[in-house]
Amino acid sequence: MNKKAWIQDMKAIPFLLPFLLAYLIFTIFPIFKGLEMSLYDWNLVRKMEFVGLENYVEMVQDPNFWQTLWNTTLFVMLTTPTMVLLALGLSLLANLNTKLKTFFRGSFFIPSILSVAVISFLAIFMLQPYTGLVNTVLQSIGINAEPFWMADKGLAWVSIVVVTLWWSVGFNMILFLTSLQDIPDALYEASEIDGASRWKQFRYITLPQLIPIGRVVILLQILASYKVFAQILLITGGGPGGATRPLIQYIYEIGFTQNNLGYAATMSYALFFILLILSVIQLKNQRMEEK
C-alpha cells in the first residue's frame, strides 16, 4: 500500500472512532469484566473476595443449574425445528401471487413488532382459566374440560412454545421470503417446459435455493432460544414448580435477588461458551457442505 492510499484510509478514522469507542466500552469491556467477576465472591454490599474457580465448581455441582439448562435446551428443541418449518410454510404462502399476499405478509409479520410485555399480557388474557378466550372457545365447540394452561407442566410448555412461535415467526418468515424472491423465474419456466410438477419444482429448485438462508435461520433461532427469558418470566414465572424456568431466569434470580453477582457471571459465561460452541459447529458444517 502506497503512502497516498494509506493517508486516504486514515481519513476514515475520525468517523469510525465514536462507534469503536462505544463498542469497546459497552461490548468488549463488559466481556472481560464479567470474566473477572466470575472469579470473585462479588456482590453490591460487601467488598469482593477472590475465590478463583470456586464459582465454577459450585456451578458444576448445582442441580438447579443443570435443571434450568435442561429446561432451556428443551425449549430450543421444541421451538427451533417448528419455527423453521412454520416460517418456511408461511413464506411460501406469502409469496403466492394472489390478491391476499399483502394481507398475509402483514398479518404474519405484525406480531413480531410487538413488545414482549404486550405478547405476554395477551397470552395470559387468552389462556387464563374460566374466563380466558381459549377455554371459552373450547367450551363453545363442546369441549367441557377446563385446562389450566399455566398450572400444568405439559400445558405450560405448549403455551410458551405457541406464544413464542406466534410472536417471532414473522422475522424468520421475512428472511425466507426474501430468498424466495431472489430465485430466478427462469428456473421455474424451464422446469415447466420440461413438465415438472409443483412438488418437483419445490423439491429440486426452491428447497436447494433456500438452504443457505435456512442455515442462518436455524443458527439465529438456536441462539435466540437459548437466551429465552422475558416471556417465560411474565407468563409462567418459571412455573409450575420451576418446570419452565430457563437458565437466564436462574441467572437473574441469583444475581439480582440473591445478590450473588460472581456466581451469576459464572453461569453467564457457561451459557456464552455453549452458544459459542454451537455457532462454531454450525459454521464448520456449513463450510464443509459448501466445499
From TrEMBL:
It is found in: Cell membrane. One of its GO terms (cellular component) is plasma membrane. The chain crosses the membrane at residues 12-32, 74-96, 108-127, 155-177, 204-224, 261-281. GO terms for biological process: transmembrane transport. It is a multi-pass membrane protein. InterPro entries: ABC_transporter_permease, MetI-like, MetI-like_sf. CDD domains: TM_PBP2. Keywords: Cell membrane, Membrane, Transmembrane, Transmembrane helix, Transport. It comes from the Bacteria. Pfam families: BPD_transp_1 (PF00528). Residues 69-282 form the ABC transmembrane type-1 domain. Belongs to the binding-protein-dependent transport system permease family. This is Sugar ABC transporter permease. The lineage of its organism: Bacteria, Bacillati, Bacillota, Bacilli, Bacillales.
